[in-house]
Amino acid sequence: GAETCARIRNIRHDIPIVLMSGYWEEQAKQKFETHVSGFLKKPFSPEQLRDTMKLAFADFPGSIGESELRP
């Protein structure tokens, strides 16, 4: 969780991080000392996952385009 997030930020500070938790968003974010790009409360649908990931990676260099997300 929080330790993994901190290690990722030490390696690459600009990579999007999306939290997935059974806790409410504010409760989950309190455990992290860094900015997160998105949040999903469990359970979530495949569509919610897709939409959250698209938003989180929208401005990330080298991210895939919308056409690549469709089968």
Task: Characterize the structure shown.
The protein is an alpha+beta fold and 71 residues long. The protein is built from 4 helices and 2 strands, in the order H-E-H-E-H-H. Strands 1-2 form a two-stranded parallel sheet. The termini are far apart. The mean pLDDT is 82.
Main attributes?
two-stranded parallel ribbon; 71 residues; alpha+beta; 2 strands
Topology record:
Elements: H1 2-11, E1 18-21, H2 25-30, E2 38-41, H3 46-56, H4 66-69
Parallel strand pairs: 1-2
The oligomeric state is single chain
What string gives the helices and strands in order?
HEHEHH
Low-confidence stretches: none
How much is the radius of gyration in Å? 13 Å
**What is the strand arrangement across the widest sheet?**
1-2
Number of helices: 4
Got a strand count?
Answer: 2
What's the average pLDDT?
82
> Termini distance?
31 Å
* Beta-strand proportion: 5-15%
Structural class: alpha+beta
- Major beta sheet, specifics? 2 strands, parallel
Q: What share of the residues lie within helices?
A: 40-55%
Query: How would you describe the shape?
Result: flat
Compose a concise summary of this entry.
This protein is of the alpha+beta class. It has four helices and two strands. It has helices spanning 2-11, 25-30, 46-56, 66-69, and strands at 18-21, 38-41.
